[in-house]
Amino acid sequence: QVQLKESGGGLVQPGGSLRLSCAASTNIFSIAIMGWYRQGPGKQRELVASIGPGGSTNYADDVTGRFSISRDNAKNTLDLQMTSLKPEDTAVYYCNARRLDRAVIYWGTGTLVTVSS
To answer: What is residue 70's three-state secondary structure?
Structure first.
């Protein structure tokens, strides 16, 4: 019953910036760990960044200092601000929610980010 929808993907030059957004169909952010994952060509899906209900964040080593995850519980939105983009950041980025009150995980359908070389 919860839908996640990513937006903001596109083509960007190396060193450029891009902001991704995830909109949830209902307010679940207060009881879920929200995250951004990505899957690049020939790679497994990997965690990019996550944020807990209390605001604690976690970042993959290769995006630390370049990406910033944030959430607005009132608006049911999750953002990923990406800066200093590299070609290896090219991937489909997925919004994810892991509920803490029940064993269920939600995924968006992804948005493609292409960083040209």
So the answer is: strand
Could you give the CA distance from residue 11 to residue 52 in angstroms, rounded to a whole number?
A: 29
Spatial strand order of the sheet with 67-72 comes to 4-7, 18-24, 77-82, 67-72
Q: Is the pLDDT of residue 50 over 80?
A: yes
CA dihedral over 2, 23, 87, 114, signed as positive or negative: positive
Dist CA 82 CA 113 (whole Å): 10
Contact 69, 57 (CB under 8 A): yes
Residue 13 pLDDT > 90, yes or no? yes
- Helix, strand, coil shares, percent, the chain, to 5: 5, 50, 45
Percent of the chain with pLDDT over 90: 92
- As a whole number of angstroms, the distance between CA 57 and CA 52 comes to 7
Give the span between the Cα atoms of 5 and 111, in whole angstroms: 9
